[in-house]
Recover the amino acids of this structure.
């Protein structure tokens, strides 16, 4: 059984410029507390993991771009790449889905950030979801 869980979602359309950070949205569901707050906590565009241990992460989103090219979603833990997914956008504003799992180890506390990039034009991200489970 999980020790902590969070389901985070954002259904708004986000046009990301220059390898920018994706807004993960709001915590829709979650449980698990550490000291004075949630074990998995949102802080702006970051997801804070506030307890030592292993976490399972799943990310998914609908993506597009302002021009044909590849769109990539990358998950960073404390600035280091831990997982990513990529899809080819055949024409401007075509839709594609990206989803990928990640596993992270936290020694004390850690920060997860999702970044969107595109090989042409600006990536557009919508219906982004993230599930994080402390195992």
């Amino acid at each position: 059984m999980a020790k902590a869980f969070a389901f985070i979602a954002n259904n708004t359309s986000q046009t990301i410029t220059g390898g920018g950070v994706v807004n993960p949205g709001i915590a829709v569901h979650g449980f698990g507390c550490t000291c004075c707050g949630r074990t998995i906590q949102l802080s702006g565009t970051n997801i804070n993991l506030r307890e030592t241990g292993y976490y399972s992460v799943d990310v998914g989103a609908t993506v597009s771009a302002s021009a044909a090219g590849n769109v990539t979603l990358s998950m960073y833990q404390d600035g280091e790449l831990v997982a990513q997914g990529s899809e080819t956008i055949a024409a401007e504003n075509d839709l594609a889905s990206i989803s990928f799992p990640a596993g992270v180890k936290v020694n004390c506390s850690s920060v997860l950030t999702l970044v969107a990039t595109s090989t042409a034009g600006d990536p557009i991200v919508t219906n982004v979801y993230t599930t994080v489970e402390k195992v």
